[in-house]
Amino acid sequence: MTTETDQAPGRAAGRRAWLRDHSELGVCALLLALGVLVLADALTMDVDIAQRGPVGPRTVPVAVGAGLLVIAALLAVDVLRGGRGRAEGGEDVDLSEPADWRTVLLLSGIFLGAAVLIEPAGFPVAGALLFWGAAFALGSRRVDRDPLIAAVLSLITYAVFDKLLGVPLPGGPLMGVL
Amino acid sequence: MNALTSLLDGFGTALTPLNLLWAALGVLLGTAIGVLPGIGPAMAVALLLPVTYGLDPTGAFIMFAGIYYGAMFGGSTTSILLNTPGESAAVVAAMEGNPMAKAGRGAQALAAAAIGHFAGGMVGTILLVALAPAVAELAVDIGAPDYFALMVLAFIAVTSVLGSSRVRGLASLLIGLTIGLVGLDQMTGQQRLTFGSLQLADGIDVVIVAVGLFAIGEALWVAAHLRRRPAEPIPVGRPWLGRGDVRRTWKSWLRGPFIGFPFGAIPAGGAEIPTFLSYVVEKRLSKQKDEWGKGAIEGVAGPESAASASAAGTLVSMLTLGLPTTAVAAVMLAAFQQYGIQPGPLLFEREPDLVWGLIASLFVGMVLLLALNLPLAPLWARLLRIPRPYLYAGILFFAAVGAYAVGGEVVDLVILLVIGLIGFGMRRYGLPVLPAVIGVILGPGAEQQLRRALQISDGSVTGLVDTPFAVTVYAVIALLLAWPLVKRAVRRGRTAA
Amino acid sequence: MRLRTPLALLGAAVLVLVGPPLLSAGGGTETGTRIPGLRLMVPNTPGGGYDITARTAAKDAEDAGLTHNIEVFNLPGAGGTVGLSRLVSEHGNGRLAMSMGLGVVGAVRSNHAPRTLADTTPIARLTEEQDVVVVGKDSPYRTIDELIGAWRKNPGKLPVGGGSSPGGPDHLAPMLMARAAGISPKAVNYIPFDGGGELLASILGGKVAFGVSGVGEYLDQIRAGELRVLAVTGPERVPELKDAPTLKESGYAVEFTNWRGLVAPPGLSGAERDKLIRLAEELHDSPQWRRSLEKNGWDDAFLAGERFGAFLDAQDERVVSVLKELGL
User: Fold this and answer.
1) Could you tell me if C34 lies within 8 Å of chain B, comparing CB atoms?
2) Nearest to B77 by CA among B32, B44, B46
3) Of the N and C termini of chain A, which has fewer Cβ atoms inside 10 Å?
4) Closest-CA residue in chain B for A130?
5) Are B176 and B436 in contact (CB under 8 A)?
6) Which chain A residues touch B449 with a CB distance below 8 Å?
7) Closest residue to B334, CB basis, from C59, C165, C221
């Protein structure tokens, strides 16, 4: 948003505070980027199928993309006028503390790791690591108990899905060996 | 009165001790499987269908009815307790049910859902008995322009009525519509927003979007702001619905079926639109508006009742037209064929005993569902007393299981995480999550119906408004949009006077 | 106390690594035609032709005791190419097959789908089926000549509904019909539905002027008098619908039959592939399947393995040439 630089006070500290206060403009930027992406994708689509009627495969994406641009602008106006989206509260949520980014990153990493492991190492291994890792990241430190809980949970889930219900899950490297 | 005597005969078969046992077993099994992550009613019913193969037709259908209703209720249970809807019809149950559960009113939420299912199923099945031929006749008159109008109504209703900020509601809806665009175009097979990726050509499964936005987004959001002081265990509270709860919800239970049933009966209906609409209606009519979003019990009772009644509606077109409108109905078709029975216009004449036995067993199944699950609700609710790290680790774990079980693809897990991060961002900046989910669920359908309507009218825009039904729906939309203005005008008029 | 941690870790590791193979031991033996956990994918919506084919085949195979517990599931979209690309991505999965037919061949062509049937393991062609031209019971058209007469006058205002995307059988049949009647195929207003369920409602409700679909999908509605058959598209009349004339005897030079079969993911071992083919063969030989063929108005057209693969290639070429001929 070009308006940021126009209105931001000269002093660096002030500018930082203003930016933090108006961080919702980042959402506008993301919506804007998304809109451009959708429009670009729609307009570069080559429609060569005999199409009947005024609405083809392009029409709706163009409308959605344009809508995103408009909403991005409206939201920016709202934010600059002082409108704020209220962060969601909840029973387990303490909004008085600053966000704990380390835990979020850690959880995301563990989740990705489990996703990568699920095929080579099998679902029980990946699932157990996911559960234990997530519990650890969220503050549980019972190293003598948590891995066992995770392993049992993961194994039971595997058994229920793969054996009882016939929804196939990968079993792990020892599947053909034993 | 012919229908009534036939129905009484049906009860005669359904109420033998052995058949009651099958029904009870069906309800228990259905609930147990429906509770599993990523398994909605359709999948639960499909997975359990072979269990009924050993029985005689009547016993099998009675057990089947139990499985069906049990699975629907089981799906809502995970939605309420863990915020992980197993299918799109259970999405709304999470909206108010999960906050209730977190506030220690999980048992009440489950009880409201169970009674909702019971009431919806009862009223729906009564409507099925009374109106089946007439409804079936009307259902085929609903065409593409009407569906499109209904979907627009759903979009407008959730964005303008629900959120506190319309801009943010619309932004959320547009994010959902964008996610819904990903994949092959339904009508022409054109690739959209796939960036050449094969995995994205399938589109993004609704379950993954819902679980991502709800469960993963929530877990990450909580992780970022977890109370560091020793968490008090969630109070269990009283296990039963209080008198105040009942006073608030009985109307919702009874309203739900009349929203749900018609939608179930129309060919492209299903349970999504009626649950959303029921939610909006209940919020509008509620006297405790400030409780919404923090656990308003009507928000569980109404939609659950609507969902259950829509299932009864599904049976109307299924039994009288042989038209499976949902995946569950398709599985039921297979179950009928198992016994060499072809549902369709001739079914009621050819197999009266079986049809009426089935309808009677629907009633029996619902009574058993209530009888078995109401006492179990407090036990289920105890699930939330496990320590926070385990609870949220478990939610992440089951969300991953659900997403993986849907398609067996690792990419789905990555998409799940990305959508979870979007959900995290939306929570941070106060974008409501529900419009996005509705955009994903209804967006592709709305586009298809729009294009079909315009094609049927050979390109003329009047094709969108040439049915009385569509015009009525647009009038409702106009009213909905104009309502705040009217209200302001009235208030201004009053203060001026 | 200190020992407990490594013990717990060790225990957990043993559980997750050794548990699954131990659980599998004994259970789920693959003998004869039994394929535990076999799943059948239907690439269109419930109630459509592939759906009925898959569910009938699954049920008959179970009744005949060939295998048990076949799960049938739907993955609709873009005339079957969404399901196809999913099937192809399940490389080496010997417990999955997809019901398909001419419609998928056509959809791959007209959609320029990234994955084609050449990427799959062909199992067997099962059935052949004629298309029917049907109208609702309240429709003003009582004969095929009346319908085509009105259609000639204003093709745009008489939308045709069909259960397949452009290039599929329900699309090709009315196009060929239009050409034979002297209507430009480009003027035909064809509306695709994914599968037969919603299409049926549109025909009954008069949303489309007429529908074109497989015989088996609407037999019951036809018998009940909800739908009226104006013509069948094949070379001779269908035994179940003796009164319905063929297009050819009505004076329109069209001969068109649809077929359906099963394909499996690519990358199967020889044994896995043979097993699926053997299952299809035994299904074909079972009395249950004979009965279903008759009941649904399907013709037996069994063709297995390599020969089915060659047939798929030939069909692909045919679809391309027909689409080109029609100028679409």
Assistant:
1) no
2) B32
3) C
4) B397
5) yes
6) none
7) C59
